[in-house]
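User: Sequence in, structure out. Go.
Assistant: Echoing your sequence, followed by the structure tokens.
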Amino acid sequence: MKKIFLLLLCIPLISLSQIFTEPSTLNLIDVEIDEYGGHGTNLPIFAPIGWSRDGVFAYQRVKCDGGCGCCTNYISIASAKTDKEIDEINLLSDDIEIDKSSWIENQKEIDRVLLKYNIQNTGFGEFYRSYRIDNFEIIFSKNIIACAESDYNGEYGEEYVNHYRLLIGNDNIGYKKVTSGTQDCGSFGLSFEGYFISPFEDRILIVLSSYSLGYEAEEDYDLHFYGCSLNLSTFK
């Protein structure tokens, strides 16, 4: 009996001692880079860490800003239910790529925060570049309108306002809105990239990418994540 009791005491200690390994990078943005004819392209570096059983996901990302010539290297913890970031770990690096030393130097803080949200260190699984999942159809629509003359400075050519909607469903059960919004004048595009499937829930994580021109006319890209339950009761 004493041995069993001691073993039960050790189980939470074992789980708390989990060490998270640095994730592999994954390119989510399907774009052809013009290496010679433009002012440069800043693609975010994305590395999926894993999911929790209650819809929280974590990833590492490096973003560079042409205006300041600097980069940010951080881990984001977000909810696929609210589409909001709930925590962040700044890895304090100005490198233009994911630097292994940044992860190692912050290992204790990374383990502490990711364990706090019950993240499983298993990645995100396969990335599907498709507008369909089972019997569901994903619809991404845009209404692009040229900026009003009062808002348009013409520095890098024509600029637009982009009204967008993201829906999922089918003709039998109807469609529900995943997200919608407006990109203000000065934004140049928003695209559907694909989705991940949660390993724990009937839920997907849809990925959009945005595009704009930076401080020196370089192409700046960013990633946006929207969770969506596929439970049929949510389509009523």
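User: And one key feature?
Assistant: DSSP finds three helices and eleven strands in the chain.
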